[in-house]
């Protein structure tokens, strides 16, 4: 039996825009997703947009009971900036009432809410002014954070500022996947910097308003593994870790920018614009905990040809197709559970063993109805196996002293996923889009209940 520490959080992760629906109703204004879908629905898988998603807005009371029914003792989800403050200044009473009741219902069902403020959902009114490219975004976000702490701070003690900030930087400004879908490395660095300062200012506000609470940030930590031990490949690996891990983890936990990253940016004439007081604010506003999302590692190699100064990330490192990798055949992502041990030990060694939790880990499956049995239940043994493999490495790291306090899967119910719509299913509950968003528990949900009740599992 693999037992986990007492009080371990067995949870799941969600986000507001991916589950709530009602995307332009009840006073909510448009985020970049609402705007982009209206302008360009073909970009979205099967033209599935953000309007309805999993319709949690109408189902949250029963959904909170469903959380309890599969043993979840924690949920981390996000609130939507565009719902709480539709124009950035005016409080939306319907949003306050909805979120207050949602968090209350979670708690009545024994589910601890960990609430995140931003999950890729930039308000369109702010994007029209330049979004994260402008310094104005820092104060706009700080004000939103303050409003959220004031409205819900009596119900929610544990907060996070951003989910995977490097995703809106890379997908929006380097890879053309998310709005505004431009490729401009200089802008990408400035966007990352303003996002970091928005996080710092939110933490500073939190310390004043909620001295008893805890605050963190959620980072997608995909450790990179080099193709070979050659100096060039190792240099590429180092650059990948600087960009993808240390860019946010160092300032958030250690209160300072990573000096090698600063050097790399400087050499490539990529340093962002800053204010003189920023460094002091970064140093004074470190986090209480970290959430780490892990799906797959990144395999890297030295670029064959690189521009100098760099124009894209490819000039620092390039993806490497490791021939021995094990693949999730239903999503195409690599399965490499050992990496969860590696990041856990990195937290212990390089980040003074700060408390942290797995804030997302999960297995996406396309066309999952093919695994439905005659009773209508998805027999997702592959997902149980995936969780066991990852939990086994996590358990080992905890035994060796890594300070991990919880494991959150992606996700509780099947949810809408940006450009991929409902292509990849991850939930413990299937959501039937054809049958009024009916929820049906999957085999993995029943397994998770046992896991949570026993605080561990039989190997
Ligand atoms: C995570 C994001 O990285 O990946 C989620 O935080 C997203 O928002 C999830 O839904 C799964 O992504 P995909 O592309 O497989 O649907």
Automatic annotation (TrEMBL):
UniProt cross-references to Pfam families, sorted A to Z: Glyco_hydro_1
Keywords: Glycosidase, Hydrolase
Matching InterPro entries: GH (IPR017853), Glyco_hydro_1 (IPR001360)
Gene3D superfamilies attached to this UniProt entry: Glycosidases
Signal peptide interval: none
Top-rank taxon: Bacteria
EC number of this enzyme: 3.2.1.-
GO molecular function: hydrolase activity, acting on glycosyl bonds
Coiled coil: none
Enzyme class: hydrolase
Family per record: Belongs to the glycosyl hydrolase 1 family.
Protein name: Glycoside hydrolase family 1 protein
Classification lineage: Bacteria, Bacillati, Bacillota, Bacilli, Lactobacillales
